[in-house]
Input
Amino acid sequence: MRLIMFGPPGVGKGTQAKLLSEEFGVPHISTGDMLRAAVAEGTELGKKAKSIMDAGRLVPDDVMIGIVRDVLRSPKVKNGFILDGFPRTVEQAKALDTLFQELHIGDYRVVNFAVDDAEIIRRLGSRLMCVNDGKIYNKLTDGVSPEMRCPECGGALIQRDDDKEETIRKRLEVYHSTTKPVLEFYNSRGVVLQLDGRATVESVHNEIKRLLGV
Ligand code: AMP
Output
């Protein structure tokens, strides 16, 4: 299983990547999670990334490409990977292509999650994240509130700094101007699987498996 989860923020890429990762034992590689971990640890990368992320902008390509190169060269991905949040620019997609050639990876798929902007704003504005395990919940569909604890690990539930309305709008703008063109790159290679991301978590999960034939 070699997958790239593609689509705007808040579309369910991370949730679906986690489910597939658990079911098939393939590592979930979320560049957003890696950056948030760096911020939490207060590393040099974290210090630089924090203000960029809070503004809804993108961390520079060379930094992101370096991070993903290290992960894809490591033994933990020898049986596959689920990339989530990368590539986000055509430059990153080209670098990933070069890396795939180096590593003799030819059989990969891009799962494109389609959801309109109004729905994304609604979803992102109502989601909460566990500070402990990073799990995402939604106030509208999961019945959680900031006063509650994570149902799985008991961690505090918070709104991500970049899930504030102004930042959400900026992230969507960046998605349309900079990230969406990446889809053309993969369409021309015939590796894109189209998905309607509006359905329930379970039916989207089943649809991905149907598309992959697993
Ligand atoms: P995510 O959790 O995937 O929504 O990522 C959160 C934030 O991390 C993004 O809004 C960007 O600021 C940053 N980020 C994550 N992945 C990338 C990437 N591939 N390129 C640039 N910035 C990224």
